[in-house]
TrEMBL record:
It catalyses: squalene + reduced [NADPH--hemoprotein reductase] + O2 = (S)-2,3-epoxysqualene + oxidized [NADPH--hemoprotein reductase] + H2O + H(+). Catalyzes the stereospecific oxidation of squalene to (S)-2,3-epoxysqualene, and is considered to be a rate-limiting enzyme in steroid biosynthesis. Residues 206-478 form the Squalene epoxidase domain. Its EC number is 1.14.14.17. It comes from Morus notabilis. It is found in: Membrane. PANTHER family: SQUALENE MONOOXYGENASE. GO terms for cellular component: endoplasmic reticulum; membrane. This is Squalene monooxygenase.
Length: 519
């Protein structure tokens, strides 16, 4: 009998040992549990048991930034809990144009298939109109594969594809709920309080909480000093079954009082965004907006789009969206990070928001990869502080260009400002480096702040040259001086808001971790 017990014990222990050996040999042995997390995994050479399997990262929001971040960190083996207020397909009039620089980041994150099967359109550059004249500006894509270009699409379709891809990972849990506040202990964020779709009040705790709840964030005040500017409002229309004068190009009309944009969002639809300066816009409900669009805007758009524009107004689906800009001004907070529009916004004229967000995600992924244990709060905090500096060259270039171009493109009764506007159109029309340089900046293909400043002041100097040739007069010299002064007044406040040292000399800012240089 004793021998039988010993033999039975030996067989049981052998089988148990064989089970653990097989688990160890596999890269990943995963069994889904009820809450969506994996039960066992082998990652980075370390076997983790059920006791250790808690949430690594809580992400608030599943828009472009939150969904892309969830997939990226989940793919790296992190256990991610995403809480999104509404998991239905979003319906927005912005976030519909992804620049080529952003598409390259999408490829780097393995998310390029999210622009497939949503009727996304390839975009190869811009056409700019002023006073009946036009010039075409192409993206400098010669060094890239044929697939690299801009993409335009319905924002909601794109987001849903990324949510589906994130939710396909066994270690990513996507939940509908409303985050009400952060959990803080002695200045360190430990997670969030949230309310489920059913109204149940719960908490989700993790060593790192990333807030990506968009431009109307209700959590950002806990993590930064938000200085939000509302320079204008976009009025959105959808034009159906018409062709742009320049196929597969975004169109910018330098209208009075401010720009009008057209770009494709599907094979049969064009998005029109009419910029209305100020925070007060004509009422849509009373019909005042329709009258404004027909009498003030319609006469300034290209003739090829006029009939479709009027038809879109008559159809009545007129949408408005405030345009916001907000420099990144975070409080370095242990255990928490802001990303996306909750953290940093710029005027959407140049369509750079998603490029900045995806670039930030690539950087954060690379920062976190060496950190297996996110519970090491002091090391994690130092790495996250580095994030704010390392993101600056890309983010600040796009932010500054968006703010500066918007101010230059708006009509003004000031003669010097109008000269700058005309000089910008003529400078871009020169072609060669005069168009490819600025477009490379705008598209995120050349995120170098110094190049931005050089091109911006080259436009101002070009404008002065136009004034002084062939024969300068005292009045023209005076206007030329005001052009230079006005250019300085436009760009330098934006640069100061972004941070001169971080933008131009990031290597001089102490950082615990240094990422590879941007190519």
């Amino acid at each position: 009998m004793v021998y039988a017990y010993l033999l039975g014990g030996f067989i049981a222990y052998s089988l148990l040992g064989l089970f653990f050996y097989c688990s160890y040999r596999g890269k990943k042995t995963a069994t889904s549990t009820a809450n969506g997390f994996v039960k066992m995994s082998y990652s980075n050479g370390i076997f983790r048991s059920d006791i250790e399997k808690r949430t690594d990262i809580v992400i608030v929001g599943a828009g472009v930034a939150g969904a892309a971040l969830a997939y990226t960190l989940g793919k790296d083996g992190r256990r991610v809990h995403v809480i999104e207020r509404d998991l239905n397909e979003p319906d927005r009039i912005v976030g519909e144009l992804l620049q080529p620089g952003g598409y390259l980041k999408l490829i780097e994150l393995g998310l390029q298939d999210c622009v497939e099967k949503i009727d996304a359109q390839r975009v190869f550059g811009y056409a700019i109109y002023k006073n009946g004249k036009s010039t075409k500006l192409s993206y400098p894509l010669e060094k890239f594969s044929s697939d690299v270009a801009g993409r335009s699409f319905h924002n909601g379709r794109f987001i849903q594809k990324m949510r589906e891809k994130a939710a396909s990972l066994p270690n990513v849990r996507l939940e509908q709920g409303t985050v009400t506040s952060l959990i803080e202990e002695k200045g360190t964020v430990k997670g969030v309080h949230y309310k489920t779709k059913a109204g149940e009040e719960l908490t989700s705790e993790a060593p790192l909480t990333i807030v990506c709840d968009g431009c109307f964030s209700n959590l950002r005040r806990s993590l930064c000093d938000p200085k939000v500017d509302n320079p204008s409002c976009f009025v959105g229309l959808v034009l159906e079954n018409c062709d742009l004068p320049f196929a597969n190009h975004g169109h910018v009309i330098l209208a009075d009082p401010s720009p009008i944009l057209f770009y494709p969002i599907s094979s049969t639809e064009l998005r029109c965004l009419v910029d209305v300066p100020g925070q007060k816009v004509p009422s849509v409900a009373s019909g005042e907006m329709a009258h404004y669009l027909k009498t003030m805007v319609a006469p300034q758009i290209p003739p090829e789009l006029y009939s479709a524009f009027i038809a879109a107004i008559d159809k009545g689906n007129i949408r408005t969206m405030p345009n916001r800009s907000m420099p990144a001004a975070p409080y370095p907070t242990p255990g928490a990070l802001l990303m996306g529009d909750a953290f940093n916004m710029r005027h959407p004229l140049t369509g750079g928001g998603m490029t900045v967000a995806l670039s930030d995600i690539v950087l954060l992924r690379d920062l976190l990869r060496p950190l297996y244990d996110l519970h090491d709060a002091s090391t994690l905090c130092r790495y996250l502080e580095s994030f704010y500096t390392l993101r600056k060259p890309m983010a600040s270039t796009i932010n500054t260009l968006a703010g500066a171009l918007y101010k230059v493109f708006c009509a003004s009764p000031d003669t010097a400002r109008e000269e700058m506007r005309q000089a910008c159109f003529d400078y871009l029309s020169l072609g060669g480096i005069f168009s490819s340089g600025p477009v490379a900046l705008l598209s995120g293909l050349n995120p170098h702040p110094l190049s931005l400043v050089l091109h911006f002041f080259a436009v101002a100097v070009y404008g002065v040259g136009r004034l002084l040739l062939p024969f300068p007069s005292p009045k023209r010299v005076w206007i030329g001086g005001r052009v230079i002064s006005g250019a300085s007044g436009i760009i330098f406040p934006i640069i100061m808001g972004e941070g001169v040292r971080q933008m131009f000399f990031p290597a001089t800012v102490p950082a615990y971790y240094r990422a590879p240089p941007i190519h």
